[in-house]
Amino acid sequence: MTARPSDTVLLTVTGRDGPDTTSRLTGLLADAGAELLDVEQVVVQGLLTLALLVRPSASAPEGQDPWQALLLAARELGVTVDVRAVAPVATPGGPEPLRYVVTGVGKTLGAREVHALTARLAEQGARVERITRLSETPLGSVELHVTLPPDADPSSLKRALLALSMESPTFDVALQRESLYRRGKRMVVMDMDSTLIRIEVIDELARAHGVHAKVAAITERAMHGEMDYDESLRQRVALLAGLDVQVLRELAANLPLTEGAETLIRVLKRLGYRTAVISGGFSVAAEALQARLGIDFAYSNMLEAQDGKLTGRTVGTIVNARRKAELLETLAKQEGILLEQVIAVGDGANDLLMLEKAGLGIAFRAKPKLREAADTSISAGGLDTILYLLGLTARELREVT
């Protein structure tokens, strides 16, 4: 479409980027009195794409091409300019579209993965407005800003992206509502067993005490809803009666951390986040992790001991699903942090209430039921994947690691 001198136009500049390309071109627009309505620029491998939505000056001489000087300068700079007339920018009115951020993370993301993601978005009626690379070479993480129609069902998009993640074992896709608090998180609360560490402490203690099969049978019954969490914990802990406390201490001193755990905590601390472990596991292990990683708070179940042996009982209130959610809320209030600014991470059914309470609930390497209920999930990557969900780039992470 040929632009007339009075048209609002989209100027698309492409070519090798130079140190003064944008400056020269915008200077010419300013000299001509053109009104700048919108601007976007990206440089990929030294190649520039600059988009400028402009309206010529009302006082420009009639019959004169207002873009002639800019086209001549572009030729000198070694770039090309496409001049395209566009419809006038509409005044915003009616319901705003729903805005979301989709984060794709994998060891490497190729055309196949990006296509699968964008195709799934298109099927759901989501319009991609911007794609940003978060990782460096190789391409491992991208962030897509998308919109949905005001009357769309976001849960349908969430289910579609969850299905995509489940189909691709090396590729995680996270969906978050774009809001003031997305990059304004201030606290991260984590489960311990099978989340912050790779093991279940009670299973390891049961093996050391020769009662693993019995403990596993109780766990299985609880998972099938045959008993509640509190009763299952009491029965499993009772089987540990007589175990030397030193076994627990040695295990706590050598807990195998989940991939990315140290990086996650180190970066969060450098950025001023508060961190907490809220676990249905045991305090000796949770407090050992707290000291090892510099975590701010640790809440878990305390095992009773007498004469250097476990009694088979716990002390105090059991940290169950409801208690986890209560502790998260109490911590947030204590620290003056809104619930919308809290991230909760867990893998089991007893983490669900905690994940629901937080502004962002992340199911980490969890069963499908929790993944479906959580805001988003991570299965392929390590815990440091959470940093990409905060919108941090690899370049920014280098500054704090």
UniProtKB/TrEMBL annotation:
<comment type="similarity">
    <text>Belongs to the HAD-like hydrolase superfamily. SerB family.</text>
</comment>
<protein>
    <recommendedName>
        <fullName>Phosphoserine phosphatase</fullName>
        <ecNumber>3.1.3.3</ecNumber>
    </recommendedName>
</protein>
<comment type="pathway">
    <text>Amino-acid biosynthesis; L-serine biosynthesis; L-serine from 3-phospho-D-glycerate: step 3/3.</text>
</comment>
<keyword id="KW-0479">Metal-binding</keyword>
<keyword id="KW-0460">Magnesium</keyword>
<keyword id="KW-0028">Amino-acid biosynthesis</keyword>
<dbReference type="Pfam" id="PF21086">
    <property type="entry name" value="ACT_PSP_2"/>
</dbReference>
<keyword id="KW-0718">Serine biosynthesis</keyword>
<dbReference type="Pfam" id="PF00702">
    <property type="entry name" value="Hydrolase"/>
</dbReference>
<dbReference type="GO" id="GO:0016787">
    <property type="term" value="F:hydrolase activity"/>
</dbReference>
<dbReference type="InterPro" id="IPR004469">
    <property type="entry name" value="PSP"/>
</dbReference>
<dbReference type="InterPro" id="IPR036412">
    <property type="entry name" value="HAD-like_sf"/>
</dbReference>
<dbReference type="InterPro" id="IPR050582">
    <property type="entry name" value="HAD-like_SerB"/>
</dbReference>
<dbReference type="InterPro" id="IPR023214">
    <property type="entry name" value="HAD_sf"/>
</dbReference>
<keyword id="KW-0378">Hydrolase</keyword>
<dbReference type="Pfam" id="PF13740">
    <property type="entry name" value="ACT_6"/>
</dbReference>
<dbReference type="InterPro" id="IPR045865">
    <property type="entry name" value="ACT-like_dom_sf"/>
</dbReference>
<dbReference type="InterPro" id="IPR049148">
    <property type="entry name" value="PSP_ACT"/>
</dbReference>
<feature type="domain" description="Phosphoserine phosphatase ACT">
    <location>
        <begin position="101"/>
        <end position="175"/>
    </location>
</feature>
